[in-house]
Specification:
The structure is a homotetramer of 150-residue chains. By secondary structure, chain A is of the alpha+beta class. Chain A has helices spanning 2-5, 37-54, 134-148, and strands spanning 12-14, 17-23, 66-76, 85-95, 99-108, 111-123. In chain A, a hairpin with a 2-residue loop joins strand 1 (12-14) and strand 2. Chains in contact: A-B, A-C, A-D, B-C, B-D, C-D.
């Protein structure tokens, strides 16, 4: 399996915080010489996907349950550039009946380039809001708690 | 000139509101069958660029003045799909000394799919904040006023 | 309908050649100051989609018939830059039983920036090759013939 | 340094072949449920960048020397899907005075999804062809030779 060859390919969860590396390639930059702003939004989605993956939640196998971004507040704080190796940190901030609150940061050498608060809604196959299934809620509560203890 | 062949290629400004069409292509969709969320952020940037273009402000010819997105609050309200023809509406909401506040909506058949409040900062070639040059400020005030009159 | 407001939003077919404008936005450029090479591949897909649309073929309503790119030979000839208004030209070159040969060019002020020969395969919902339905084949033969007459 | 935290983040070179993992995220897929075709072109660029990086060649520090893709022949052989972990293999095939020939494959579980032959040209800051500097040529010859020996 390819997964065995590349141990940290989905990042790591430590103390309730998921972190993963993201390299800045030409595709991520623009003619201003910096990372194109919408790419940070993409980087955060990659990180949420890999965080779920490490928690054992596979989006392509969730059946009727879908996560969709409902709201996102984005602060663009510092520019990253070609070849930079960024780290995206993802924290679960809270759980509602049909939504999950997540905080994300894109870091470069200890500085925050981008910060977002993300509200993810739980919807069914037709896009209608549904309650977060209890098994998923428990997984999220577990990671929330592990962070609070630190 | 190609511009003469395609009259409305940059959209139109009417009553102080810029609107432009954006078609949803395969590149904009994802495996969920809907428009990938970060694409709305891209669509809004296209619209801001074309709005500036119609106002006679050419980003590639602005010399030392750069516009960068500093903050963006995004609401994802309704999903768009392949082949949909969206319309992006852009409104100037206010002017600060070194920033511009802009409101944007992505519409589909009269419904709002996506809404964003965008704070754009004015920076110099090194990314440091600078005052909005008076000629640009006047252009923005002009479009702000034309909308208030309606 | 939004389509009525933006008459040429899908380009035009003249003498068997489809052409459409594509503006270069920040999203299309990279830190080299030019259009990122893979964007030309995307531009060509947009053009094929709109060409089909003008021929009355709606990809999202094709039922069990899917077009997938099987082979693409790409020549990157000249760089385009931010704010350039490109034109993509699409020509049908030939029809096989289960595939369509298409030639595409991305033009800037009369010069060719990018040229591609594209082999599109016809597949069913499971990705297996299938014969091009006769109604589609007739449509493609029609546009092929209209070009040969010129 | 972030690099120390994520040892294989740029992939590995073994027997003259560079290989690196690429996860398929939502951003890479389209409404057809598969990886959007142009994304393979992007994946190959990421792999070339990381291969150069492991060879000690940093694109953002190359001074007046730029690598641009001149020609690319692409075969789309098998579809990848959301959550797949792909591996991109990159091989140097040959060296000309002002260009480098590279072969790339995107693999999934031992099958080839995508294959490309890529001609990369060496150009100066104005986009004019220039001879490959001897130090770079030697690095490329080194990796070419190490593969031939196996």
């Amino acid at each position: 399996m390819a997964e065995d060859q590349w141990p940290d390919v989905s990042g790591r969860i430590q103390n309730g915080i998921h972190s993963m590396p993201i390299r800045v390639y030409y595709e991520d930059t623009d003619a201003g010489g910096i990372v194109y702003h919408a790419r940070y939004v993409v980087f955060c989605e990659r990180a949420r996907s890999d965080c779920l993956r490490l928690l054992g939640i596979h989006q392509s196998a969730l059946g009727g349950v879908h996560f969709v971004v409902r709201r996102m507040t984005c602060d663009f704080l510092k520019s990253a550039r070609l070849d930079d190796l960024l780290e995206v940190e993802t924290r679960f901030l809270g759980l509602g009946g049909a939504r999950v609150e997540i905080g994300q940061q894109v870091m470069l050498n200890g500085n925050t380039c981008f910060r977002a608060d993300v509200t993810v809604a739980v919807v069914d196959g037709r896009g209608r809001p549904m309650r977060l299934p209890e098994t998923l809620a428990e997984t999220f509560r577990g990671i929330l708690k592990s962070r609070n203890l630190t």
